[in-house]
Amino acid sequence: MVSADRPPDPPAHGHVLLAPGRFPGALTAAQVARHLAAGLRRARPGVPLVELPVADGGDGTVEAAVAAGWRRIEVEVCGPTGRPVTARLAVRDRTALVELAEASGLRRLPGGKPRPLTASSLGTGQLVAHALRLGARRIVLGLGGGACTDGGAGLVQGLGGRLLDALGKELPPGGAALRSLHALDLRALPDLSGVEVVVACDSAGPLLGRGGAAAVDGPPRGASRDEVRVLDAGLRRWADLAEAASRRAARDLPGAGAAGGVGFAALAFLGATIEPGAALMLDLLDLSGRARGAHLVVTGEGTLDTRSLRGTAPIGVARAAARAGAPVIAVAGRRGLTGERLRKARIQAVYALDDIEPDAERRVRRAGPLLEQLTVAIADEWLPAPPRR
């Protein structure tokens, strides 16, 4: 465990808020929260616990909203390769939360095999269409964890648009096919007047070029150097026709390149605004309200380091909780923040799995039980046992 300057002892009442992010490759945010709760219930059975897993718009965003009380809706849509998948969205009042990774994510690829040239965001468009049919007047679209680099062309198709080649035939899915795009038929797109669309993402890149969607997102999705050039050419053709059809110049806007260019389609066709994912999600989950009056807030993520300071959900949790007057500690698989950086993040202490398990493979395999083991030290240092009578 590494501590910053410890604050005065917290009051002897109030709840413990468990608001962790995910441990990629090991546990979802909800699973992290459940393991922390299981350990603390054994160590301090009388302490009230509130589980609030957090996300930043990527994998686990819908799961986090459902854990916070949003209604879960399941819909069968097309996965990134066209195979049907059962995807979820979350609904509260007239707001719908749609997660790209649910329908078009890397985890939806059959056998995990990348399809950089042909993977499509079609299913995400189908989720948005379903949210509209449910009567949503505000749609929050979380971008992250996607498998496609299609500029959001599939998203437009999922909403009813048609992408046609020179012979008037529908284009096959994926970014590579966009090189043959000749015309758009948008007559079946839904009326979005009166509907607010907000994109939750942290990407500020444009659609095209060296810092664009193909160059940045293509290689992690399995694209070779030559395939990146193919994808960028397709996205350029897509941008020319999409901007002409939508009458919105969106290719160079911050966030247009997000999630393989899905951000571009949201900007051009949905009139979306883009907000930092972590801050937006914490607001939707009412993190500040749930932290008010807390005895302790526990957050965390797989690797807590300087990259976290760029705006990950756990850092947002720490700052919001500190503003609410609650002490904040973190759990992590690996820790890279100490001293002044830890203090600036408003985190009083970090408990890391690699402190008790140096083997990386075992840390991943046994992440849940190791988290429960860490709660013993957390309880001893932050949740004093009541005196015996």
Automatic annotation (TrEMBL):
EC number from the UniProt entry: 2.7.1.-
Keyword line: Kinase, Transferase
Cross-referenced InterPro entries: Glyc_kinase_flavodox-like_fold, Glycerate_kinase, Glycerate_kinase_RE-like, Glycerate_kinase_sf
GO terms, biological process: organic acid phosphorylation
Lineage: Bacteria, Bacillati, Actinomycetota, Actinomycetes, Streptosporangiales
Keyword Transferase applies: yes
Organism in which the protein naturally occurs: Actinomadura physcomitrii
Coiled coil: none
Pfam families for this protein: Gly_kinase
EC category: transferase
Similarity remark: Belongs to the glycerate kinase type-1 family.
Name of the molecule in the record: Glycerate kinase
GO MF annotation terms: glycerate kinase activity
